[in-house]
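PROTEIN DESIGN WORKSHEET
SECTION A - STRUCTURE
LENGTH: 423
TOKENS:
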């Protein structure tokens, strides 16, 4: 059965076939940049045909739409590709709201930070972990997110890391092994021992449930990992068949970005503190090789909800964009440094606090996330893309930042199923 979605006021396709843009498709086949409004491949007065198999069959002006089995009138609302949230930590137990309240009132926080969540997650039942993760992914869908990446990292023992990834795999294909999130307390005096566990038995137990390996590379944080340790974690994961991603340069201009480029990581996430050499390395990862073809470089994924929730300076998105580095935006949804599941909130922050245009921010929250996950079937609505669409009760995508905090997502199409949200 085919479905014609028609009377779309503004359709954002991120497809260079529309809008006269030379923007590359989000395939990682070139440095797409985040473009201007032209890069969004916008069609006004539009329609789209989606097939039962969950793929986009046609987009264009409504007046020239082909026939379909069923027609759905979207009443002039706008349609964007479903958000691609390429960075989240949504399998965990416990509550850290008191830590947030203390931080916001300037009180010294003496709690255990990530260790608090690790203890609660180890003690939780699989059913309770699953129920909470399912609820968070539903919450994300209700805000327009149709693809989400989920990391482990609150187990830090073999059984809990593997359990986390099994649950995550039920919710998404984009699962990331982050045993090297922090060094747990019981290994505080034996870091090499924890490295052996993370790169040995824990990796073996987790790799079957994971697509990616990640590490918190931050020499400035005593429980995170330095360059040499991080390299060992990433290379072990790569040898086990996983793709690499890195938490880097969040608290200091450390080695994370350059290490991510060195190992061919799909993305380095945070990028709050960058040197000129870091920016050059990211840009260089997208430059053409001897054959003239551009490779799949390393995306800079920015997580401004973390800076919001920790009252920290925001990353310099404009510097990255000016250098031609593809930028993604994601939530980093986690109980400690930023507990928002909302991509519209992240888009609004990127526009207001990081100087991105509404068009750049939307591209980064959709196509940018797809490049960061090396996916060419999501983040855009070109022919053959997954029919993951988010319908905004607004005349244009600009309203995402223009009306911050307002629940504009009125329905979502995911795997050809229509999810209508209560208003
Ligand atoms: Zn994170």
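SECTION B - SEQUENCE
RESIDUE ASSIGNMENT:
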């Amino acid at each position: 059965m085919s479905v014609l979605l028609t009377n779309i006021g503004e359709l954002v396709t991120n497809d260079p076939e529309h809008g006269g843009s030379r923007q590359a498709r989000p395939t990682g086949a070139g440095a797409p940049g985040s473009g201007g409004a032209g890069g969004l491949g916008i069609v006004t007065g539009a329609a789209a045909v989606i097939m039962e198999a969950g793929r986009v069959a046609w987009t264009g002006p409504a007046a020239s739409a082909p026939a379909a089995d069923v027609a759905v009138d979207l009443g002039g609302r706008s349609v964007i590709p479903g958000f691609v949230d390429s960075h989240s930590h949504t399998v965990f137990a416990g509550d850290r709201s008191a830590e947030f309240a203390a931080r916001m009132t300037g009180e010294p926080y003496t709690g255990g930070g990530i260790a608090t969540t690790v203890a609660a997650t180890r003690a939780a039942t699989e059913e309770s972990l699953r129920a909470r993760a399912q609820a968070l992914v539903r919450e994300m869908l209700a805000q327009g997110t149709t693809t989400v990446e989920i990391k482990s990292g609150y187990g830090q023992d073999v059984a809990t890391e593997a359990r986390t990834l099994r649950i995550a795999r039920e919710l998404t294909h984009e699962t990331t092994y982050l045993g090297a999130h922090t060094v747990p307390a019981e290994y505080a005096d034996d870091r090499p021992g924890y490295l052996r566990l993370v790169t040995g038995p824990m990796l073996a137990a987790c790799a079957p449930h994971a697509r990616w390996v990640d590490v918190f590379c931050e020499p400035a944080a005593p429980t995170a990992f330095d360059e040499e340790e991080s390299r060992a974690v990433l290379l072990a994961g790569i040898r086990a068949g996983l793709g690499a991603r890195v938490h880097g340069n969040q608290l200091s201009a450390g080695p994370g970005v350059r290490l991510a480029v060195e190992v061919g990581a799909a993305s380095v996430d945070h990028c709050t503190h960058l040197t000129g050499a870091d920016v050059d390395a990211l840009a260089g990862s997208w430059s053409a090789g001897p054959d003239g073809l551009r490779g799949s470089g390393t995306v800079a994924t920015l997580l401004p909800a973390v800076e919001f929730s920790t009252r920290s300076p925001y990353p310099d998105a404009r510097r990255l964009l000016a250098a031609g580095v593809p930028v993604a935006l994601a939530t980093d949804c986690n109980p400690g440094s930023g507990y928002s599941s909302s991509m519209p909130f992240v888009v609004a922050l990127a526009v207001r606090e990081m100087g991105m245009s509404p068009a750049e921010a939307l591209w980064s929250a959709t196509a940018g996330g797809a490049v960061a996950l090396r996916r060419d079937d999501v983040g855009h609505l070109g022919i053959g893309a997954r029919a993951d669409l988010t319908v905004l009760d607004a005349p244009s995508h600009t309203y995402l930042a223009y009306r911050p905090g307002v629940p504009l997502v009125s329905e979502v199409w995911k795997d050809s199923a229509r999810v209508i949200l209560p208003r």
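SECTION C - NOTES
The chain has 15 helices and 16 strands.
The longest strand covers residues 2-12.
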